[in-house]
Amino acid sequence: MKYILPFIALIMFSCSNQSKKTKIIAESSNELISTKNKDSTAVTNIVSDFFQAFDDRDLDKMEQILTPASKIIHNNGVTTDTKEMIEVIKETKNWYPRKRKLSEFEFDADDTFAIVGVVNEVTFSLPEDKEVYEPYNETWIFKKINNKWHPVRIHYSKIVREKHTEEVE
Which long-range contacts does 27-34 make (Cβ < 8 Å, 24+ apart)? Predict the structure, then answer.
């Protein structure tokens, strides 16, 4: 009997302690989900803010969003860093008005990196009431720097087909 009481006490303590561990894990999981939701909102807002700055030719805002080492891989395969991209925008003579629709956002992240996928549809308004529609699939890679997300690599591909093929044309 004297051995049974300590054994029962040990079982009760273990069971009650386990509940606390489970509760802590559940709270941590909810906190993680909440953090991911905040990060998801933050990075998708950055993508939207970037394109607003881009369309407005707000180069200062673009430089605030990007880092000096950010890389943009364009649909033609050319890679530019932030400084080179700013120069391209400055030198572009015909900056036509445009309407932009961002949709189909996808998001995944850990504590340091986030990946965002987005469909970017742009309709340019050219002279003589001509419109040019340009759809793109984009992947943005963000890095958390000093507790703030920054795009470090942006890759976009023009959508030219509905179905993929490996046929050489």
Answer: none
Question: Quick one: pLDDT band at residue 15, thresholds 50, 70, 90?
Answer: very low
Residue 142 to residues 11, 40, 42, 46, Cα–Cα distance (Å):
48, 11, 11, 10
Cα(62)–Cα(84) distance, integer angstroms: 12
What is the distance between the alpha carbons of residues 158 and 161, in angstroms, rounded to a whole number?
9
Measured from the Cβ of residue 73, the count of other Cβ atoms closer than 10 Å reads 15
Residue 14 has pLDDT above 50, yes or no: no
Helix, strand or coil, per DSSP, at residue 21: helix
pLDDT at residue 34, as a whole number: 54
Tokens 């069971």 sit at which residue? Answer: 15
Q: Which CATH class is domain 33-158?
A: alpha beta
Position 104: which residue type? E
Structure tokens at 8: 């029962």
Gap between the Cα atoms of 9 and 15, Å rounded: 10
* In contact, 75 and 157? CB cutoff 8 Å: yes
What DSSP state is assigned to residue 93? Answer: S
pTM over 0.85: no
CB atoms within 10 A of CB 154: 21
